[in-house]
Amino acid sequence: MFDIRRYTADQADEWNRFVAQSKNGTFLFDRGYMDYHSDRFRDHSLLCYLDGSLYALLPANERDGALYSHQGLTYGGLVMSAEATTEKVCVLFGEINDFLRAQGIRRVVYKPVPRVFHSLPSDEDLFAIFLKCRAKLVSRNVSSAIIPQRPVKWKSFRRYAVNKGRNEGVEVRQSDDFKAFWTILTENLSTRHEAKPVHSLEEITLLHRRFPKNIQLWAAYAPTGQMIGATVLYVARQAVHTQYISASDEGRRLHAVDVIIDHLLHEAFPQVDFFDFGTSNLPNGELHESLIYQKEGFGGRAICYDTYKWEVISD
After folding, report:
1. pLDDT per residue over 143-158, tens digit each?
2. CA proximity to 76, closest of 146, 25, 11, 126
3. d(CA 241, CA 32)
4. DSSP line for 261-297
5. pTM (two decimals)
6. Do residues 123 and 78 make contact, with C-beta atoms less than 8 angstroms apart?
7. Nearest residue to 79 via CA among 87, 71, 70
């Protein structure tokens, strides 16, 4: 039924047009975003045609005989048009498995698009991989999201922090000074978590130039004019996601993060469907209790980021 093909670079425009009109795709699937680190991954993305028209995409890479929902992305999964139906998606996954088996792929590791990024209901793939692939849930991370138009009441200490920060003269505005923020972010991740940002300063600057409306920096400033904290937002059609958020020592003293979140929810993005704070898990998958406590203090409630796996070729 389906004509399944591996992606090649000459199909980038067709790929990007489909992502833009899909019901569950975001700008992360645009090849301008996916390919910024193409040297690190062996791309094995798929285009799936039905009766000569593009029906679905699968952003993916290959490693050690396995197909992964692209490992350079937070999430992946089947990107579908509004016309995609459960019956046909079930058929499609059976044929994808046949296609992969013929290419020697042994297993699939699959990260579906979280529901906060769906512009229409888009769980056809979850049903299909359960029914046709016998997929098993292998990991589950928990994010925290807010519906700004139906907010949960903030914890009193969060409201106190916002008022204190504003009374101290903290101001929030959009910025292009990624360099100043990367200094704050890198120092915090290094000293507090022995980690570093997923993106280098050069990479995030490049991506911001390619997607200026989708990748935004919102910063808090002290009365002296010094940046004391900021967040990098990934702005999709129906959801805003905090990709990075951090504050300097002075920013923590002046409650910069609280003031930023208050500004974003009530002034910058009050009409967005979801405001997603991102996951709160330790490297071993356990809950990062202090991190999620902060997010839930703003009214965030749980959204899961899942990973599934199934065998294409039995050992």
Report:
1. 999 999 999 989 899 9
2. 25
3. 19
4. HHHIIIIISTT-SEEEEEE-B-TTS-B-HHHHHHHHH
5. 0.94
6. no
7. 70
